[in-house]
Amino acid sequence: MTASTLIKGATLPDGTTTDVLVQDGVIAELGAVKATADRTIDADGLRLLPGLVDLHTHLREPGREDAETVLTGSRAAAVGGFTAVLAMANTSPVTDTAEAAERVYDLGRAAGLVDVQPVGAVTKGLAGEELAELGLMARSRAKVRVFSDDGKCVHDPRVMRRALEYVKAFGGVVSQHSQDPSLAGPTACCHEGELSGQLGLPGWPGVAEEVIVARDVMLARHTGSRVHVAHVSTAGSVEVVRWAKAQGIAVTAEVTPHHLLLTTDLLTGYDPTFKVNPPLRPDEDVRALREALADGTIDAVATDHAPHARHDKEHAFVDAAFGMLGLETALPVITTVMVENGLLDWAGVARTMSVNPARIAGLDDVHGRPVAVGEPANLTLVDPAAKVVVDRAASVSLSRNNPWHDRKLTGRVVATLLRGTPTVLEGALA
Ligand SMILES: NC(=O)N[C@@H](CC(=O)O)C(=O)O
Ligand SMILES: [Zn+2]
Ligand SMILES: [Zn+2]
């Protein structure tokens, strides 16, 4: 038996206010709860959401434990309000076997702060040629359902077709890093446009993403399988996804918090903190991404939390590693960009940050559940009005490549519960 928790006067995503008694890992009672509990959390004015689920996290273990480990990344996830994260396969070695997937899964369970669900590589070594052990990973203890060569695009259409056909058998999905390597060359490091010319930086155009998204939705239609578009960054990709969904094609898409707020003009200072793939895009893309998340064309927010050690990031812009932190700031960014601007209500936040990602990842038996009696108590308590100034030094991540440093954001995660056990209380690790 685990300690019980009484959450007093929380407001649910739909706006109703209730007490929530959490006992033995599940929601035991709702309404005006008379019972006492081992711990009481005053949730007056706070929103209670189903625990957040991140479809796209880089945990760097094994191989780059100087940048992040499963444990430190799990801490960042819990502080960010997450109860489940999908750990990308571009580790060293790559997660391309059942054993490798089980290892990541076990490290996550040992850390015990968030459900770490390994993503399996699509191809051996992310080399883009030979399919990885998709079936063995699916049947392993880790029950892998999401496959991705993220960091690299599965660019050979024949390989992509085979992967889609293969994962269909067990309801899996291929999450694609859409970046055509011949349109976005090996040196490309920012958005191709007027600014990249002025800065003298090799850029890559939005169309390098869009052609892959277009190809993949057609392959999904042909195979009758599911494709997921990772980190959508352009208005053109949104148009393709919108069209594909209207045709009934089984496509889902995610957008990162950074692509919803940060724009390419941040690159004028050549600060590698803002170097990321896909690159920060112009205003008109950002606007289209916000609208698409609001209208459901984009299903989910995913962080693409990409920690990098100082010695990989602190270089001249062209030489620095791609990627930025995201787990601890995702909820405040979405509150600021989407809720404060009236684009999403809290039910919309629950949908795009918990319900939809859980469903896409096949974790919806445990995560992204309604706040209802008998459901597993994976919960996130949010102060929707709190103003926070992000301080990169305060992060529990091992890395410091935080693009939000010094920004004032609205919204703060107050508490996170994983199967009824608080992992975060009063905004800090419990
Ligand atoms: N997003 C990034 O810029 N980098 C990611 C890889 C990826 O998501 O493509 C990384 O692993 O660092
Ligand atoms: Zn990627
Ligand atoms: Zn990624």
Describe the structure.
This protein is α/β, with parallel strands linked by helices. It has 2 domains: 92 residues, Urease, subunit C, domain 1; 310 residues, TIM Barrel, CATH 3.20.20.140. Helix content is 29%, strand content 22%. It has 12 helices and 19 strands. Strands 5-16-17-18-19 form a 5-stranded antiparallel beta sheet, with helices on one face. The chain has a 5-stranded parallel beta sheet with strand order 9-10-13-14-15. The mean pLDDT is 98. The site of N-carbamoyl-L-aspartate (NCD) has 11 residues, from loops. It holds the Pfam family DHOase. Catalyzes the reversible cyclization of carbamoyl aspartate to dihydroorotate. Its EC number is 3.5.2.3. Pathway: Pyrimidine metabolism; UMP biosynthesis via de novo pathway; (S)-dihydroorotate from bicarbonate: step 3/3. It comes from Nocardioides simplex (Arthrobacter simplex).
Question: In brief, what are we looking at here?
Answer:
With 430 residues, this protein is of the alpha/beta class.
Count of the separate structural domains: 2
Unreliable segments of 5+ consecutive residues: none
Q: Strands of the biggest beta sheet: in what spatial order?
A: 5-16-17-18-19
The quaternary structure here is single chain
Which value, in Å, is the CA radius of gyration?
Answer: 20 Å
Question: Strand fraction band?
Answer: 15-25%
CATH architecture field of the largest domain? Alpha-Beta Barrel
CATH class of the largest domain: Alpha Beta
CATH topology of the largest domain: TIM Barrel
The biggest beta sheet, please? Answer: 5 strands, antiparallel
**Helix share of residues?**
25-40%
Keywords: Hydrolase, Metal-binding, Pyrimidine biosynthesis, Zinc
Binding site for substrate: 58-60, 90, 277, 308, 322-323
Domain Dihydroorotase catalytic: 48-235
Binding site for Zn(2+) 1: 56, 58, 150, 304
